[in-house]
Amino acid sequence: MDRGAPRPNQDGRPPFALWALLLVAALQRAWNAFRVPPLAGYDEPGHAAYIFTLVLEGRLPHPLEGWSTFHPPLYYLLSSLLWKALAPLGPHVIVAGLRGIGSLAGLAAGYVTFRLARRLGAGTAAAWIAAALVLFVPCAQMAGTMIGNEAFAAGLAALALPAILALQIDPRDARSAVTAGVFTGLALASKYTGVFVAVACVVPFLRRDLDRRGLRSLVVAVGLIMLLAGPFYARNLALTGSLFPMTRSLPVVLKAERAWSFGPHRVIDYLTFPPGALLRPSLFHVPHAAASNWNRNPAMASVWAMAYASIWYDAFGCRIPLYYHHDGVLTGPLLALLGLVPTSLAIVGFLGASVRMVRTLGRSPDAPLVVMSLVAIGLFIVFTWNAPTLSAVKGSYLLPLAPAAGGFFARAVERLRVRRTLLALSAGAALAAMIVFTEGAVFPGGSLGPGGIAEWMGYAAHLPGAHINDALTWILGMP
To answer: The domain containing residue 442 runs over which residues?
Structure first.
């Protein structure tokens, strides 16, 4: 037996400390849902317009009709039902309710992270801190308070993972096959990143000794994925000729992307990480100058620097106003530096898990998480190379990997002598992130502002049937 193989910890009931953590996270997210200014998040007006089309016209928009209409529709269908139910209570309550969808999904991801870490052999403390990191890492907090499908899809993907790891142990487990198939299919019906977990779902069945019962579980899992997600992708193919259409082919979107670009990516952009990016973790943060939309931090030409800054800080200025993206404001460097500890541990854990997967020919307990991570990173590289715009280099695109990263983190930290110190630093990173991104605790809320409204109204003029202007007018209460 591989000496490095994890010994599973199978608890009965989750400890009180986990429920307390989830309660704190729920209260904080509820506060943010009501307090964060509306439509300031990444592409929020485009996502709101997608929902508005369903609410006003009762139809799915064409995949290339609006700004964000290329996304699979599950999140938007659910949001439209919630919008209609909350309509009598007004825009403020509707926005908070829509944010609640992603917030609940994020809580599910935190719970799953704890259980995954325990399954992979981590102690309660390491698993608890892994869950705290997944709950409070800035990109997860921001996704949970935006109108959009990122947090929702990542939560569904997380719910598929325990069943997938159960199948890795016993591919004949029909109940786990059903659970994995359902949540994987729902994740794929919510966002293209569902393909990460779809690949992981197949890994347990890639073995020579797969018997008839195992084959039946494979058919069940794949069948459910096709049943739940297949119709939406078949619709994409029929309407656009592509399974994965994107509105970035539209002239107005392409023009906007070019304004957020240093030019085509170079190979060196994937091989470097400027240390200065840790001291200025923002696209707009430049030395000795006031931040503005026209300043660009050259360190963010590095793909991994930009991704890291958008994971551990507000690199795009969605929640923290641009006025505070300058030298002397220490929150950005603090979070970026604190984030190095858990991020490095997650990478070490991932590398160790990769070695175990190779040694065991894919039979290690966490092999599906390794394959999922490799596929996600590979597709992220391909996507950013083909979409050379800074807006494509969002760490939140990797959000479905958060529970896997938490498991890798917990597995790695258990094997180190300075375990308590590393856990304390990692807990400090989670706590600092929670405080900074609790609305009003450190910074006043960033808002869309007159310039942002004018910009989106300009996009609306080029997409007249997309209801962008209607969403802006109604949610913001504009005349």
So the answer is: 16-250+339-476
